[in-house]
Specification:
2 copies of one chain form a homodimer. In chain A, helix 3 crosses helix 4. By secondary structure, chain A is α+β, with helices and mostly antiparallel strands. Chain A is built from 5 helices and 3 strands. In chain A, 59% of the residues lie in helices and 14% in strands. The relative contact order of chain A is 0.14. Chain A is globular, with a radius of gyration of 15 Å. Chain A starts with 9 loop residues before the first helix and ends with a helix. Chain A binds a DNA duplex through helix 4.
DNA sequence: CTAACATATGAACAGTTATTCATATGTTCA
DNA sequence: TGAACATATGAATAACTGTTCATATGTTAG
């Protein structure tokens, strides 16, 4: 039988809530949208959003821990990019709902 | 030109963050998943999740305000159901990410 | 090695949020 | 009308979270 649509158990829903929490912050969302265009360093992101380096770094950590972004070191800089296409799809789904 | 993929402006991203915040709570998520099977009254939801009526009622209000659930009165009871298919799709997208 | 730079991290604070308790609103039935 | 029931709401509290400041870690060039 196809099990994909069956009711996910409680533990998974807790994990899922944690994932959506990550999307539920405008700074993180803006970081993700910014990264959907191109790979960027921490400072480039901070400048693009006009926010402090520290703030962005803290939020990038959250995104990293949730496997929403990837990092690559190049010299002194760390270059971040979106981890997979789920990210874009989740954001688009959300936009669909908002834009009716 | 097709504009769908263009960078959403800041205001929209704030709205979007608010939407994802709603999904970022396990109680609300469980309510939504419970409602994906069938329309239920407040008490039925509370019993299904083994939580207080008041807690569920408060959270249903949040879901209502965000147009994620619909209500229908039948006598003393209020019957809630999911508002549209975006809800299920957003949850499924999230699950896809979690389950790798 | 050292200075200069990029990023990460810890502690603290302010603002937000989910839950609970108590109670109000609204509906049905006798 | 009044009692019983279902739901909604307000206030209070405890827990969580994002940002900032200060500083640590790590890298490169001289």
């Amino acid at each position: 039988m196809d099990d994909k649509k069956s009711c996910p158990d409680i533990e998974v829903l807790f994990e899922l809530a944690d994932l959506f929490k990550v999307f539920g912050d405008s700074t993180r969302l803006r970081v993700m949208v910014t990264l959907s265009d191109s790979e960027l360093s921490v400072m480039e992101i901070a400048e693009a959003l006009n926010m402090e380096q520290s703030t962005i770094s803290h939020q990038l950590r959250v995104l990293r821990q949730n496997k929403l972004v990837r990092v690559r070191r190049d010299g002194k800089q760390m270059y971040y990019s979106l981890d997979d296409d789920h990210v874009k799809k989740i954001i688009e789904m959300g936009l669909d709902h908002i834009l009716e």
